[in-house]
Every structure is written in structure tokens, then in C-alpha cells.
Amino acid sequence: MKTQSTNRSFTGRYALIQGSYWINFASVLAFSSVYLLDRGLTSGQIGLIMAISGLAAAAAQPIAAGYADRPSSPSLKVLVTVTCLLATLMGAAVCAAYRHSPLLTGLLFGGCVAVLQFLLPFINSLGTEMLNQGYSLNWGLSRGIGSIVYAAASSLLGMMVLRAGVISIPVCIALGYGVLTLCVWRYPFQKKALTSAEGQKPEPSSPGVFFKRYPRFFIVLAGAAMLYVSHVFINTFLYQIIQANGGGSGDVGLITSMCGLIEIPPMLFFARMLKKAGCGTWFKICGAAIALKSIGTLLVSSMEALYAVQLFQLLGWGLISIVPVYYVNQVIRAEDAIKGQAYMAMTYTIGSVAASLAGGALIDLAGVNVMLFAAAGTGLAGAVVIGIFAER
Questions:
Q1: What is the maximal distance between C-alpha atoms in the chain?
Q2: What dihedral do alpha carbons 217, 387, 235, 237 form, nearest 10°?
Q3: Residue 378's pLDDT is what?
């Protein structure tokens, strides 16, 4: 029987966490090329920074997740709060390094990227763990509010860059992480000790044991990673794509804001959508949409057409930003829940590493169209893998 506290809805408080997290996503990732190109770095160097940051996050995520799943570890809330505080300090350091060397700027900005990617599975788990404990929380609505904030922040930051210059970007990073730290600290999350059916505390499992337990999940992760490679190719180097089609830095904010708004409806209504089809089916649909968006971006030759292609965001990123979280929560047992979310989030991190490293080099060596061809190929391959192996 639920207590009064479990009947109380925590959607509003969790939405604040999602919103403040996606403010940082807009400032750190959507405007990374705008800021770093202005500070004198090349597309290849930007890709290298993104790749190293992603590798650092990918290495840390399963270790931290395994630690967080232990009954004796501190609360997940403590882990996230401390990490957010560290990110706030790094954001402030990026501001302080504005007039210094491009190398120092790149290192500090890369640290902000690494923390942002590291936090993703744990931000998600702050919501799903509350659901698993029986609390009232609309995860999809909270994530949808995060996208609304992302759209607003992207549009506002785009205007600020035009009026005040690129210094607006690190200022927004520092403020965004500061707000996120406060929201997580105030979030009423309590750690729940997990026990197995025999009443024994679950033993921590290695990656080998985990994937032996969930072999099909490993293949789904590979497919998701390819979808993210395709998405990150386009997202990280959006500024260069826009320039190739005759646009400028102002279009970065407009397109990013447009995408943030388009992706909201699936998040708000995903609970109803699940009554029509299961997570596996929606996973397949979002894979197809991501592939179509990457192919469309390759084929366009004007800003008008580039804006039109963003409509695929509705069933592309609009679904893949929420479907994997529900999917993991359904196919992975409770004692492995945080690890499952971490491995799924690692697919985005791995996708970011591969796309950032290859994308910058491809643009410098062969141009934007070759990078977009790679984005279309990985998107199509990921859609095929998810279409075959995602569980119903």
C-alpha cells in the first residue's frame, strides 16, 4: 500500500532537473562549434576535443553506475550533486579562460562536455528510480518540459551570441550547471536498498556477466550507437552544415530551437502511445526517422529545405530521447537498472566520440557533404539493426 508521500506527484521537481540539464545541453553541445571556431580551433580539433571528452565519460559511466547500484554506496542524488558542482566550477573556468589560449579553452570546454555526457544516465535514473519505488512521476512530461526549455534556451542563446558575442556561451554554461546543482540538491530522492527474491543483497556484476544475462540487449546497444553517430554528426557540426547551405550563426539557434519544439509531442503523450504499441515498436520507428533525417540533410541544397528536414525530429530524436529509458526499465531487472541506463547512455557517448572524431576530420579533409554521407550510412545501418533486434 502506498503512503501519502508515494501518492504525491514529483513531476514538477523532476521537470526542473530535466529543464536545467537541457539548458546545458543547448549551450555545451549545440553551440560548441560556434564557440570553439571563434576561439581559433579547427573542425578537426573540435572533433578531437569532443571525442576525448566522450571517451572520458564512457569510461566513467559504467564504473559510477556499478558503484551507484551497490546497496552500501551513497545516494545517486549525492553522486549527481557533486558532479554538477564540479561542472559549475568548470563552466566558470571557461569564462575566465576566454581571453587565453585556444588550447586552454578547448581543454576546459571539453571538461564541460565530458560531465554533460557522464550525467545523462544518472539524470534519467533519478526519475526512473522514483517510478520503480512507487512514487507518482510522469517521466515523459518531465522530459518534454526539458525539451521546451532546450528550445527556449537555444533560441535565446542564439540571439545573445549575435548581440553580445560568443562570451554568452560559457556564461550560460556556468549559470546552467549552477541551476542544475541547486535543483538536484533540492530533489527529494531517497536511495532504496535492493534485494533479490531470496532476500540477499545483489552481487555487483561485471560487463561480461551483465551482457551474458542480456545478450540481445547488447546488439540493441550497437544499433542505438549507430543511430547516435548519425545524430551527432549532424548536431555537432550543424554550424558547418548551415554555412554550406548559405546560413549563419543565427540559424543555429533557430534550427536548434525548432527541433526542441518539434520533439516535444512524443514526450508529452508517450504514455498514451505505449497503449497503441510497445517500446520495441517505437524504438524501430525512431530509428527509421533518424535515418530519414540524415539522408534528407545530405540531399538538401538550401536553408529552406534544411528547415523542412527538421520535421523528422518529431519521431527521431523526439522518440529516441525517451524510448530507450522506458525500454531499459522494461527489459532489465531492477537490480541492474542503473547499469542498464548507463550502458544505454554510453551508446550516445560512443556515438559522440565516433562522430566527433570522424566528423571534424572528414570536413577538414573532404568537406561537409562527405561527412553527411557518413551520417546517412550510419543512420541507415542503425535503423536496420534496431528494426531486427529490438524486443517487442
A1: 64
A2: 100
A3: 94
